[in-house]
Amino acid sequence: MIDKALLLLKEQLNVALSTPVTGEATVAAEDVVVFADGDKLDPISFRLGAVTAMLVNVDQEPILREANPYARVASDGTSYLTHPNVRLNLNVIFVACYKQYEESLGQLSRIISFFQEKPVFDSATVPAMPDGIDRLSVELLTLPLPEQNELWGTLRATYQPSLLYRVRTLVFRDQNAKPSVRVTTASIETKQVAPAKP
């Protein structure tokens, strides 16, 4: 599902960045937004003339938890026993690498504008949402300089113009949930106890 979420963002950004500012659509020979090459990750290498999208962190969403994480109720009222949902946030970096520095900055500006206009992806805004993904929201993250330095040190790369976004929230659901036994009536047995003799 992580792959589907990143592919969705990549495809949506490619459509936006392949359209000139004048509004006339053109067919690009290559994608503007690409993923990092799997064989060029150590040290990492960014494709010249493109925006590279790369997952840099996955963290679990601690806030959105059900009252009873082991039970679900279907639309027909049936109760199910299940394992708790796993809710993940993805931190994705977009690195613009162009010969002309101002072109890198221009692409970053267009990415900011795109996500500002379309911060939420769901079936209402994207008719072909991937299976298993109900909704994604995107927000810009601003790291303090020491953390940025640490991130680029971890990537073992020279700093390039880039943006870091948090993508919320991927929900992994238990696919093997089992119907629970519904309790319809309860009976209590009582015994007559003889009073104790004095």
Characterization of the model:
This protein has 198 residues and is an alpha+beta fold. The chain has one domain. Helix content is 23%, strand content 28%. It contains 3 helices and 9 strands; from the N terminus they run αβββββαββαββ. Strands 1-2-5-8-7-6 form a 6-stranded mixed beta sheet. Strands 3-4-9 form a 3-stranded antiparallel beta sheet, with no helix packed on it. Strand 3 and strand 4 form a beta hairpin. About 3% of the residues have low confidence.
Could you outline the blueprint of secondary structure elements for this entry?
Elements: H1 2-18, E1 33-35, E2 50-60, E3 71-73, E4 79-81, E5 86-97, H2 101-117, E6 120-122, E7 135-141, H3 145-155, E8 162-172, E9 178-179
Parallel strand pairs: 1-2
Antiparallel strand pairs: 2-5, 3-4, 4-9, 5-8, 6-7, 7-8
Keywords:
alpha+beta; about 200 residues; six-stranded mixed sheet; 3 helices
**Quick one: how many beta strands?**
9
Counting structural domains, the number is 1
- End-to-end Cα distance, whole Å, is 74 Å
Q: Biggest sheet, open or closed, and with what strands and sense?
A: 6 strands, mixed
